[in-house]
Amino acid sequence: MTLFGYRVPMMASLLVWCVVWEIVGRLDLVFLLPPFSDVLVAAVSLVQTPSWQSATVTTLRAFATGMALSIVIGVPLGILMGRVKIADDLLGMWVNIFSSAPLSAIVPVLMILFGFGEKTIVAAVFLFAIWIIVLDTRAGVRHISPSLIEMARSYGASRPALYSKIILWAALPEILAGIRLGLIRGVKGVVIGQLLVAIVGYGALFETFSRNFRMAEFWALTIILFAFALLIAELIERAEAKVEYYAGARQ
Amino acid sequence: MGATALRNGPSPVPAPIDSIVEVRGISKTYGNVEALRGIDLDFPRGKLTSLLGPSGCGKTTLLKIIAGLIRADGGTVAINGKHVTAPGPERAFVFQDFALMPWATVMRNVAFGLELRGTNKAEREAIARRYIAEVGLAGFEDKYPHQLSGGMRQRVGLARALSVDADVLLLDEPFSAVDEQNRRKFQEDLIRLRTNQNKTFIFVTHSIEEAVYISDRIVLLSPRPGRVSQIIEPEIDRSGDPERIHRDRHYLDTVEEIWQGLKQYVE
């Protein structure tokens, strides 16, 4: 961003919005929006409460489990679809439908299947995250130069060697991009899942805060969540940049 | 080298006695396009044979059938008298687009053929190091492909093919993605390499000059369907300065003769 010819860092623009928030909050226009400073104070005291800490542990555990499942199942599924035409024909339609469908509508069904507990949250994370991982992995595998596969075959690569030494690596940039997008969707999944179940982790906290109009804490929790989502996306992006560096000269 | 078939000027030559690769009645059809029809060819041991022809004559298809990468619809390929339908350790392939692993160093790329065979790390890296030096890339072992020029990348591809110690090297237009100066240098190196290494080279190219410059034997293919139209053994002395070959009378005559023969296929 540039302002009057000066380069202004992104953080500065964020600061401007914080000031705007503070002013609007102080004017007391809407009771939904307390001043930003109040939200910060609430955030500091919130993270010290045992209820927040246990909710965070529950949420992170559900998120990590759901993500691990969607990566462990999604990447092989994407490779299969990229390599085997019949698998692609059979699954392609469904993966595309699910990746663009409003999945929040399915979460209540998950509750019936998995009960009012952590399993539902894990299932929601999985359901939100897996499709983009499958699609990106498939695209990555499709883009592998045919001569790289021929090279491996001509030097006598066995089928496991072909997959583990060539295909996985050649598709790695797209796989990582898929995982990054999957993580962001997974955060959505964990929040929506918990909100609907409403007795687990952050969902329970959100429910308590909004029902009792504790808006400062409500916003504090929202900001913590956003920061978390951005942080993991940033971490994966770092890893991607490293891989892109090697993949830069792909033929 | 090549003292057996010295004659006055280029001329068709009968099948030689000691052939390492024997191709019999190979045919291949893609959809309703007949790529190859009834190819019978022998490739003499220790010689460099070029497959030359206009685009669409099936020369790369034929090379990949010999490599075992493409299955023929009919006919057989025998290496050292043994029928083959799949890739094998007695053949090594050099790709037009280099086919290097961008995530691996020059060292790992060159040693990859040996890695797939299960050679232990120390041994395969010692072998790879030798061939990296042989193709003139000593000091570049830890570089990645994208840090190298096109010509250097193809040297990596060549070193990889040499390091598996195959009897037959199959080269699919290896210099077509390399700039002109590097191509010249590369051709000279290939002539030197063929003299040093006791290997058989099968070389696909669409460049008449390149084929005549480096080949002991040139197989001319005609397009649609691909068939053998002529076999030429250029009588060129390659022992001296490689630069001199470009001015050699036989070289120029052979290039001209092949051009006259191929002209009819070019609109």
Task: Record the SSE blueprint.
The complex is a heterodimer of chains A (251) and B (267).
Chain A: E1 2-3, E2 6-7, H1 10-26, H2 36-46, H3 50-83, H4 85-100, H5 107-114, H6 118-142, H7 146-154, H8 159-170, H9 172-197, H10 201-211, H11 215-247
Antiparallel strand pairs in A: 1-2
Helix pairs in contact in A: 2-11, 3-4, 3-6, 3-9, 3-10, 4-6, 5-6, 6-9, 9-10, 9-11, 10-11
Chain B: E1 19-30, E2 33-44, E3 48-52, H1 59-67, E4 74-79, E5 82-83, E6 91-94, H2 106-110, H3 112-117, H4 121-134, H5 150-163, E7 168-172, H6 180-196, E8 200-205, H7 208-214, E9 217-222, E10 227-232, H8 242-245, H9 249-262
Parallel strand pairs in B: 3-8, 3-9, 6-7, 7-8
Antiparallel strand pairs in B: 1-2, 1-4, 4-5, 9-10
In short:
The complex is a heterodimer of chains A (251) and B (267). By secondary structure, chain A is mainly α.
Describe the structure.
The complex is a heterodimer of chains A (251) and B (267). With 251 residues, chain A is mainly alpha-helical. Chain A has helices at 10-26, 36-46, 50-83, 85-100, 107-114, 118-142, 146-154, 159-170, 172-197, 201-211, 215-247, and strands spanning 2-3, 6-7. Chain A has a two-stranded antiparallel sheet with strand order 1-2. In chain A, helix 10 (201-211) runs antiparallel to helix 11. Chain A is globular and about 70 Å long. The model of chain A has no long low-confidence stretch (mean pLDDT 85). Chain B has 2 domains: 19-90 and 169-265, P-loop containing nucleotide triphosphate hydrolases (Rossmann fold), CATH 3.40.50.300; 101-165, no CATH class. In chain B, 34% of the residues lie in helices and 24% in strands. Chain B has a 6-stranded mixed beta sheet, with helices on both faces. In chain B, strands 2-1-4-5 form a 4-stranded antiparallel beta sheet, with helices on one face. Chain B is globular and about 50 Å long. Chain B starts with 18 loop residues before the first strand and ends in a 5-residue tail after the last helix. The model of chain B is unreliable at 1-11 (pLDDT under 50). Classes of the chains: A mainly alpha (251), B alpha/beta (267). Chains A and B meet through helix 7, helix 8 and helix 11 of A and strand 6 and helix 3 of B. Chain A: Its main location: membrane. Chain A: This is Putative transport system permease abc transporter protein. Chain A: It is found in: Cell membrane. Chain A: InterPro entries: MetI-like, MetI-like_sf.
